[in-house]
User: What shape does this take?
Amino acid sequence: MRALEVSELAPDHGGCRLVDRPVPEPGPGEVRVRVCAAGVNFPDLLMTRGAYQLRPELPFVPGLEFAGEIDALGADVQGWARGDAVVGANRLGAMAEYCVVPANALRPKPSAMPMEEAAAYGVAYLTAYVGLVRCGRVAAGDWVLVHGAAGGVGLAAVDLAKALGARVIAAASTSSKREAIAGLYSPDAVIEARPGFRATVKALTGGKGADLIFDPVGGDVFDESTRCIAFDGRLLVVGFASGRIPEISVNMPLIKGFSVVGVRAGEYGRRFPERGVQNLAAIDALAAEGRIRPHVHAVLDLAQWRDAFAMIERREAVGKLILRP
Assistant: This one.
């Protein structure tokens, strides 16, 4: 089978190459899936150079999430059959023609979603859900400021916040991205992500500031966000796409009465398994009901993995990129 293999941790994904690997066999409690579509996520890129908190043993096949069809069942697997259309996430292995995962890592694919969209919603919308609902306690009518709103996770946060009845301010860096966001999800405001955005946010919210701020960017964006958050607000730390991990003097959240909350959706589910199941069930239900609509920026062949990685690094994509093995 074709697979993208990481044999060495190196900058510019120098340790990655497309290889021919044996088709893996499922063991007890495992399922083999023929991958029809694999989502590309920023952590996938970080793992190729050893810059992510998960450092798999070399060599490994990256790929956090996928959609496909069950191809073979290991012993003791119940509730699944060959040919079932599924979605799943297993931290590794999706960027290949076949992957083997624990049976409990799979969920039925939403019937109305094509494979490409089904591979695009799991990681991004789970992160958005854990951030907004579990960590942010979002309520209808809240003002939610989403940074990096054109990225896969940011765009999911815009869509989900709207579906949950919040008032959404989407921040993005270019006019083309802002136009795309407005056309896709109609947030209450779309603003330019540049220094001085705090004045715009204050004006839009009647002076009080945003109740929730969803920040996958970090750096200067985080610094300025502390100046336009409402009293009792929640500043959600989702990532550091800017490259700088910011620092904060704790007198600021004390005086302004806001919380800084870290968001790690996968770890949240591992620490609280029952809630993790509930989180996945919630986004699956929203997808099945058509209340959330993941946006796929482009679908590329697995051989074009370098192009997909480069598009994410240059922040060109609006929404998710998909590789087709």
In short: Residues 115-135 form the longest helix (21 residues).
